[in-house]
Write a structure and sequence with these properties.
Layout (H helix, E strand, L loop, with lengths): L5 E4 L5 H13 L4 E4 L6 H18 L2 E5 L2 H6 L4 E3 L7 H7 L5 E6 L2 H9 L4 E4 L13 H12 L4 E5 L7 H6 L4 E4 L1 H4 L4 H10 L12
Parallel strand pairs: 1-2, 1-8, 2-3, 3-4, 4-5, 5-6, 6-7, 7-8
Length: 211
């Protein structure tokens, strides 16, 4: 399976708005969307995950769920992003179908090494820029320093206040692709531009065969 270079993480002031934004992303050419719906019950999340699955299936867009790996199996989403507290990639792997992917967030070299040893399929590494209450911005030099040491086949996706002008430098620094949220939610027409920038890169499309 090829892991797309562009991931859109949904935003919205309500679950309905999340679904609307996912549909907008699909119609604008997104290859993969992530239902990043939080602070709702598992029962409600399942309802909206099923709706998102229906939308994405119509457009042949891949769907990733945040945190809810058991529901990802239930609705046959393409994978799960983020590892809930008390869980591990190994535990999640046993529950998911063999073709479903696991992604997780990293902020440091050590985070990346831990996740790679845990055999996640891809890593969201950041933030690239801006203020973040969890970690300091990495910048281009930070990505290059980390990827130079890792020398890994695991897909590394940059995230955090990324603009179109940043894409070439990020790819040259060793990132495989990018994860976006606000940038796309504010203007879904930018999906085509990001796709063009990512495909035009000299960086080869990264492939990963799931076990």
């Amino acid at each position: 399976m090829i892991i797309p270079k562009l991931h859109y993480s949904s935003q919205g002031n309500s679950p309905k708005e999340h679904l609307e934004n996912i549909q907008n992303a699909c119609t604008s050419g997104a290859e993969l969307v992530q239902l990043n719906l939080r602070s709702v019950s598992e029962k409600k999340y399942l309802k909206f995950a099923e709706a998102a699955r229906e939308n994405t299936s119509h457009f042949q867009t891949r769907l990733i769920l945040t945190d809810h790996y058991k529901l990802a199996k239930t609705v046959k989403a393409d994978g799960v992003y983020s590892i809930p507290s008390g869980s591990s990639p190994a535990t999640i792997r046993k529950i998911l179908y063999s073709w479903q992917s696991i992604g997780a967030t990293a902020h440091t070299l050590q985070d990346c090494e831990t996740l790679i040893n845990s055999e996640v399929d891809y890593i969201g590494l950041g933030p690239y820029a801006g203020d973040d209450y969890v970690a300091a911005a990495l910048g281009i030099n930070g990505y290059k320093a980390i990827t130079d040491v890792l020398k890994t086949n695991t897909v590394i996706l940059a995230y955090g206040n990324i603009m179109t002008a940043d894409v070439p430098s990020l790819l040259n620094s060793g990132a495989s692709g990018i994860m976006l949220s606000t940038e796309i939610s504010d203007n879904f027409n930018l999906i085509r531009k990001y796709n063009q920038l990512l495909s035009a890169s000299a960086v080869a499309e990264q492939k990963h065969t799931f076990k």
